[in-house]
């Protein structure tokens, strides 16, 4: 027994003197590292929240309301008319899907968004002081988080207003409404009208309403994100006007290419954000695969993010504080 006790005591000494201090130092290092990470995350969120509050309370935010009213008059009212004529309820998600797949509204959406984000990233007189306190990295990632928050707010506002605009004429369900899918059979003479094509055969014949909704909001999100990242790069280069002109050119050429159906349209963001353009009315095989559009936006946004980060690291903080034209 005595040798066993001695061996146990010796093992305890080894554990106390060598093993526990090493483990303690390892866990202390991990704890310290995690503490630094959480502190930086809090700083990034605080930066984003500060920008978000100023963006929300800016009078320009009223443009979202004007856009929603215009969308109601153009899309929701037409869908309600179809509901009345067919005697069938719409689906609450159909107005948003129609808005996000309309060639006309997909011109207004990015323009309104660009006006709302025209100051992105915000470079005020206090920016230099903020960057000296938090560092360039915190400022940069705070701006990116703010961009994600503001883009989602914009889309959710349009989605919410779209649902509210058809109250009394819509219901929730698992499929497209008969007001949309049966309208052509019930009123063949009206089917080719402009207002009856907001949700075309290319859309409801090819996917479920839940799939169409998810693809619509995700591709619109990517489209707006891409435009904002272009703004950011030019703003960091202290040339705000060039960013706006670049985006206006992209939107204009994209709209023209989609209207004429030029093959070049798939190199532009607008065509990649319109789901129905990817399909024909009958054949299930897509003209252009949806995954390619997601890859287009994913690669494009990632490259713009990397470029903007490089520019930010090599830009003088004093220049950033001065802002662009």
Structure commentary:
By secondary structure, this protein is mainly α. Helices cover 71% and strands 1% of the residues. It is built from 14 helices and two strands. The protein has helices at residues 2-56, 62-86, 94-100, 105-116, 127-134, 136-164, 178-181, 183-186, 201-204, 209-236, 240-260, 269-273, 290-313, 317-322; strands spanning 90-91, 170-171. The chain has a two-stranded parallel sheet. The radius of gyration is 27 Å and the shape is elongated. The protein starts with a helix and ends with a helix.
- The Rg value, from CA coordinates, equals 27 Å
* Main sheet record: 2 strands, parallel
If helices are DSSP runs of H or I spanning 4 or more residues, what is the number of helices? Answer: 14
Strand content: under 5%
**Poorly predicted residue ranges:** 1-20
H-E string: HHEHHHHEHHHHHHHH
Number of strands: 2
Principal-axes geometry comes out as elongated
Task: Describe the structure concisely.
The chain contains 14 helices and two strands; from the N terminus they run ααβααααβαααααααα. With 325 residues, it is mostly helical.
How are the SSEs placed, and which strands pair?
Elements: H1 2-56, H2 62-86, E1 90-91, H3 94-100, H4 105-116, H5 127-134, H6 136-164, E2 170-171, H7 178-181, H8 183-186, H9 201-204, H10 209-236, H11 240-260, H12 269-273, H13 290-313, H14 317-322
Parallel strand pairs: 1-2
Helix pairs in contact: 1-6, 2-3, 2-4, 2-6, 3-10, 4-11, 5-6, 6-10, 10-11, 10-13
């Amino acid at each position: 027994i005595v040798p066993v006790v001695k061996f146990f005591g010796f093992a305890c000494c080894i554990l106390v003197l060598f093993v526990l201090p090493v483990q303690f130092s390892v866990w202390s290092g991990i704890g310290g590292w995690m503490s630094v990470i959480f502190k930086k995350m809090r700083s990034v969120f605080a930066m984003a929240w500060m920008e978000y509050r100023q963006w929300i309370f800016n009078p320009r935010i009223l443009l979202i309301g004007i856009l929603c009213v215009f969308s109601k008059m153009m899309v929701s009212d037409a869908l309600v008319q179809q509901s009345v004529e067919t005697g069938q309820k719409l689906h609450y998600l159909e107005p948003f899907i129609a808005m996000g797949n309309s060639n006309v509204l997909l011109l207004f959406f990015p323009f309104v968004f660009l006006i709302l984000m025209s100051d992105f990233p915000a470079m005020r007189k206090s920016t230099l002081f903020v960057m000296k306190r938090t560092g360039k990295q915190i400022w940069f990632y705070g701006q990116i988080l703010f961009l994600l928050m503001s883009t989602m707010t914009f889309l959710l506002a349009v989605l919410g207003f779209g649902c509210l605009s058809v109250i009394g004429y819509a219901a929730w369900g698992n499929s497209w409404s008969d007001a949309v899918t049966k309208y052509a059979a019930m009123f063949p003479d009206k089917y080719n009208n402009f207002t009856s094509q907001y949700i075309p055969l290319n859309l409801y014949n090819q996917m479920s309403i839940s799939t169409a909704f998810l693809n619509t909001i995700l591709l619109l999100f990517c489209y707006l994100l891409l435009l904002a990242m272009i703004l950011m790069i030019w703003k960091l280069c202290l040339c705000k006007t060039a960013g706006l002109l670049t985006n206006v050119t992209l939107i204009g050429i994209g709209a023209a290419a989609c209207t004429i159906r030029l093959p070049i349209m798939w190199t532009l963001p607008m065509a990649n954000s319109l789901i129905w353009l990817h399909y024909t009315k009958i054949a299930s095989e897509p003209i252009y695969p949806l995954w390619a559009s997601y890859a287009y936006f994913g690669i494009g946004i990632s490259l713009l993010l990397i470029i903007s980060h490089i520019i930010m690291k090599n830009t003088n903080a004093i220049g950033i504080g001065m802002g662009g034209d």
